[in-house]
User: Fold this.
Amino acid sequence: MKKLISAAVLGAALASPSLADTTKVGFVYIGPVGDHGWTYTHDVARLALEEEFGDAIETTYVENVEYGADAERVMTQMALSGTDLIFATSFGYGPDMNTVAARFPDVAFEHATGYIQETDNVSLYNARFYEGRAVIGHIAGKMTETNKIGYIASFPIPEVIMGINSAYLHAKAVNPDVEFNVVWAYSWYDPAQEAAAAEALIEQGADIIMQHTDSTAPLTVAQDAGIYAFGQASDMSAFAPEAHLTGILDVWAPYYAERVQAVIDGTWEAGDVWHGIVDGMVGFAPMSDLIPEDVRAEAEGMIEAIAAGEYHPFTGPINKQDGTPWLADGEIASDGDLLTMDFYVEGITSEIPN
Assistant:
């Protein structure tokens, strides 16, 4: 129903007259704006654009858009309607966006977390979420009593694998006995499946849950079980205040404002950016008093060190899962290695699904 409503909203927007000097900005969402996770944060940024630019822009969005033909249809409709700038906000939209972009060279396209850039009007942007996962990994390693941390993963793509490795390395650094159990949901947003995954991990002994999925379900399951968990993308503390430790925040509004302004000014060019804590694209929900004071201080110190460029979460020595060397002592992983990561680091005992 939400998708039908959104499509109707888009249709109404397409049919409405628009002032010639109004910049039209479209958003394509993989999930519902009410997920309180990934899609929610993109829509918060869209609303911030409306607040900042007022009548100078007109925004539309379609939620719950599947990869493939559905995404291509939605982006084509936006382009035909006169949309000047289209943000496609999920990894799997890459082929669809590039196909549509080739047909509409005068429209600017922006793809979140993508890697395909076949035309001059496709831009890529991403956030270094692995920096945030290093911080929550440290907290989890310090706080677990069972030494078992549960991780709910979405899809086995480099972005997700990178996050698991980063969290594990930093939990292991402060707790040599820590174990990570990973459950793959094969979905970005499926509250029932995410809840079932959390329950399975708790049955396996996990007393802290991490997630790379978008609903609040794992948090509420954790609270019901009397254990701790981290939120995802937005501040989810209100959904499970007795379990929520902190969470990585996705902060898109400043980048979106910059790109919209470039379109308005006629200076927009395709780019490829990967922003992190120092740029403000990766933030943190308030750290709960449930976290011991000394651990909070250590976590905040790590955030400051990453922001200052004094520490990189993937600094060697680090071996791959099979024990072969990956990074030598003091060596820092290249962005290319991180963006194509398809292996676990040494110590994680489960396997990455094909």
